[in-house]
Design a protein that fits this description.
60% helix, 4 strands, mainly alpha, two-stranded antiparallel sheet, elongated
Length: 388
């Protein structure tokens, strides 16, 4: 057999952390942590959708207009990429540590001796424990933590009349842990100082507020200025334009609140779907608008409509089941074996194809627009390429 390469250096007993976590998983009845459940293509599609979606998100792009010079914008983008790379390269290690800490801290431990953090999160309903075999210990094994109509435990009597629990009941999972809390709960599980926990909470809150502020700004200006003032009613007053912006923000907050209350999945999946929508709509228009002088508004609009419609259809069909059926369709019906989180890549490619075809079948953009595109690609004053 091919030996596994563990994450980081070996621990005290000489084994790698990933090997230890795989062993813990198999002992509890789960699949190996490193086995994975997605195909190589699906992982690639999700990764590409996340990358393209990040590049096309409007609240990221609008930040480039807040600096005085192009040089400052490029420098800030460079720093952002460095910090983003650090974040995403350390995330797998954090997940391994969190999973190991959780299992070793709570599995087969008496509930009365459980750390305080467990009971704090239990009060929120994001962690719950049901003593199915009534032994006072937490059993975390493969299986559903929520019981149905079956008996909670099976009691038998030993040779001397003592109470024993049958093997089948020992295999019943008693612990429910919501995946959305692991980032916040991990510092407490690892017994880190309170100021570290405060930093994690503050960072998460700051990121949420920053993203929300940027998106609301883009939504309000897009509807009030770009759509209403420039397309529908050019003579609208500034007062009414501001009113339209505020109404747009209110509607966006209500829609976002509904998705927060009734999410189509856990946080990471919802984020992946949002990035997939951005990849299927904005990213091709931005790239083709810069590198294809023949691209016109008809092609960009047609591609964006087709891309975002296709992505929304796929999301609804396989996440909510509102298209044609009452329940989400099974994974066996995924197109090209692609999950909804990764379908943004396919929708993005369809967007590109439609945009190019429509732009070639319609009038080319004005000369001044083509010159603007040329200046974006080759900054003014750069001169001809030097010969070496």
């Amino acid at each position: 057999p091919i030996p596994q390469i563990g994450m980081g250096s070996s621990i005290e007993d000489g084994t790698f952390l990933l090997d230890k976590l795989d062993k813990l998983h198999t002992q509890l009845g789960f699949n190996e942590y490193t086995s994975g459940t997605k195909s190589t293509w699906d992982v690639f599609a999700i990764t590409l959708a996340l990358m393209a979606g990040t590049a096309g998100l409007p609240h990221v792009i609008v930040r480039f207009f807040t600096v005085p010079k192009v040089k400052d914008a490029r420098k800030s983008a460079g720093y952002a990429l460095v910090f983003i790379a650090i974040l995403y390269t350390t995330a797998p290690a954090i997940s391994v540590f969190a999973r190991t800490n959780l299992i070793e801290t709570v599995n087969n431990q008496p509930y009365v001796d459980i750390p305080e953090w467990f009971k704090n999160w239990e009060n929120t309903g994001l962690i719950s424990w049901t003593d199915k075999n009534q032994d006072g210990k937490i059993q975390y094994v493969a299986g559903n933590a929520i019981t149905g109509s079956k008996p909670l435990y099976t009691e038998v009597r030993g040779e001397h009349g003592e109470r024993e629990i049958s093997n089948s009941s020992k295999e019943m999972n008693e612990l429910y842990v919501d995946r959305d809390i692991m980032v916040l709960a991990n510092p407490e599980i690892a017994k880190l100082p309170n100021w570290v926990i405060a930093l994690v909470a503050a960072g998460g809150l700051a990121a949420a507020l920053s993203t929300a502020a940027g998106l609301l700004l883009v939504i309000s200006t897009s509807i009030s200025h770009d759509l209403i003032k420039k397309q529908i009613n050019p003579h609208i007053s500034e007062k009414n334009e501001l009113l339209a912006a505020r109404i747009s923000i209110l509607i966006a907050i209500i829609i976002a609140g509904l998705f927060g209350i009734y999410p189509p999945g856990f946080v990471a999946a919802v984020v992946a779907l949002a990035f997939g929508l951005a990849a299927a709509s904005f990213f091709p228009a931005i790239i083709l608008g810069i590198f294809d002088k023949r691209m016109n508004k008809e092609g960009a609009i047609a591609g964006m409509i087709v891309g975002i419609t296709l992505m929304l259809f796929y999301m609804i069909r396989f996440k909510t089941g509102l298209v044609g059926v009452m329940e989400p369709r099974p994974t066996s019906e995924w197109w090209f074996g692609t999950s909804p989180e990764g379908f943004g890549t396919i929708a993005m490619l369809v967007n590109v194809i439609v945009s190019v075809i429509v732009s070639r079948l319609t009038a080319e953009p004005p000369v001044n627009v083509q010159e603007i595109v040329e200046n974006i690609r080759i900054p003014s004053g750069a001169g001809d390429a030097s010969q070496h």
